[in-house]
Amino acid sequence: MLWGLHPTILFRMIQAAVLPALFYAASAWSTVIRFRTRLRSLDRVLRLCGICTLGLLRTVSHDAACMLAGFLPAEFFIRQCLVQFYLRQLTYDRDLLAPDDTHRRLNPILSPRDVLHRELLQLETSGHASQSMCRRVERRLYWPTDPSFSAWAPSVTILDRDAAISQFRQAREKTSSDTLWIFTDGSLDGFNCGAAAVIFRGATIEGQPVSLRFVGLHSTTQVELVAIKLGCEHTLPLGYFSSIILVCDSQSALLGLGTSQGCSQLSAQTRRALHTLSLHTSDLRIWWVPGHVGISEHDLADDTAKKAACSDTVPYLFDVPFCATILKCRIRAHYVSRTTDWWNSFTQGHDLRQVLPSFSSDLSWTATLSRKEAALVAQFLTGHYPSQSYLRRFGHPVDGSCLWCNAPTDDRVHRLIHCPRFDYHRQRLSQEISSRSRGTFAWTWDYLVSKGRRYLAKFLLIVRAATS
Q1: In the chain, what is the greatest distance between 2 CA atoms, to the nearest angstrom?
Q2: Res 148 pLDDT > 60
Q3: What is the radius of gyration, based on Cα positions, of the chain?
Q4: What is the pLDDT, as a whole number, of residue 349?
Q5: Residues 303, 291: contact at Cβ < 8 Å?
Q6: What is the pTM of this model?
Q7: How does pLDDT run across 334-391, given as a tens digit for each residue?
Q8: What is the pLDDT of residues 266-295, one digit of tens each?
């Protein structure tokens, strides 16, 4: 299919409309993975999705279509849905694997709970995540009972990015001695995290830094929220101030403080700390400023946080929950790795395996190609490309020889490298490759099927025009 929407658009449409309907409530019927025959109907739909996405020929196998289009096989997708459902229930503070005397197995042989337990064991063996890591996921509060959520909400001021420095300097110069400034920032260095706050009294240039460190799967937003909470807790013992101004460079952390329903666990804790801090002043202001723009006070907080992340002498914080998004990504990476192992052990799809040895859902290589060009390249990569050898293989009344030079075998390699009919076009595109890459790349099979697919697309358009 050389017509239709672009592959990236179709891929998103299928992900948004087809896959949710196809695997609806997959966690409830996940025991179907025991029966390969019951997965075939799902695999057929996924194969059609891959064919429609990239415009492949109908003779392509399910495995090649799914691998090139970026769709997980049905079995691994169901397993991934089950583990992600378990993680999502944990964010609601419901543990599906908690001991329960009233639990009854719907299937006397294998239940979804048993499948989940086995998947978590494999997940821990792979090193991507574990059940204990999942249980530390950050909870979401959908029905908060704290009165501070209904009676008080923090007011956040987003300073204009271009005028932020001048506005900030004017406010610092005019500040009184009864005003407290709190600058917060966080730092991530792999699994090591640091949160810091620097407290200034009035217009003084010497601040009081405080910092914490913690380790785990945390996001930058979580680190920033810990820094804000740290600054609030260290400000309370200082007494009452007429005005307190908290400065932060994370919009996601500050805007999350205003969410009442569905807020994260850390956002709720930080909001309670800010509410308590508001009782110690008549004017609590929260400012967002862009980071790394020359504000020395905020740069001090940033340096303190970076040092805290790599230091062993800074106080350690143990109870910071893990980020759900990072855990989902690690779960996804686990099943992508399993799909790659399955693909490399499969007997079919040998032509595509040489080009695509590992699974990837990245279709960015089609961004610079039209729908027609992407379809021709995809057909070429899978080996299901309408050369004379291919037509003879599937029963067409041809002898498999080249239409132009009468070579005994007209396959992909012959058309791309050897056929003299296209020597001129091959030489012209080869010169373009050499000039743009400054001699780094040339007209070779390995380059054209990997990094040089846009030149491959141009060549395939020329060949198609010659055969039509």
Answers
A1: 93
A2: no
A3: 30
A4: 55
A5: no
A6: 0.88
A7: 999 999 998 888 766 567 888 888 898 899 999 999 999 999 999 999 989 999 999 9
A8: 998 999 899 999 988 989 999 998 888 778
CA distances from 334 to 77, 82, 128, 246, 341 (A): 11, 13, 6, 41, 11
Instruction: Write out the two tokens for 200.
Output: 């200034």
CATH assignment of 142-320, given 3.40.50.720, 3.30.420.10, 3.40.50.170, 3.40.50.620? Answer: 3.30.420.10
The tokens for 419 are 């056929």
Whole-number Å distance between alpha carbons of 243 and 177: 10
Helices (H), 347-421: 350-355, 371-382, 388-393, 412-413
154: left (phi > 0), else alpha (psi -120 to 50), else beta?
beta
Quote the distance between the C-alpha of residue 174 and its chain's center: 45
Q: Which residues face 182 on adjacent strands?
A: 199, 246
Residues in the chain: 468
Q: Which residues have C-beta within 8 Å of that of residue 152, sequence separation ≥ 6?
A: 275, 278
Average confidence (pLDDT) over 442-446: 93
Q: Coil, strand, or helix at residue 363? A: coil
Tens digits of per-residue pLDDT, 218-241?
999 999 999 999 999 999 998 889
Instruction: Name the residue ranges covered by the structural domains of the chain.
Output: 7-137+329-355, 142-320, 386-467
DSSP for 58-92, written as a single string: TTS-HHHHHHHHT---HHHHHHHHHHHHHHHHHHT
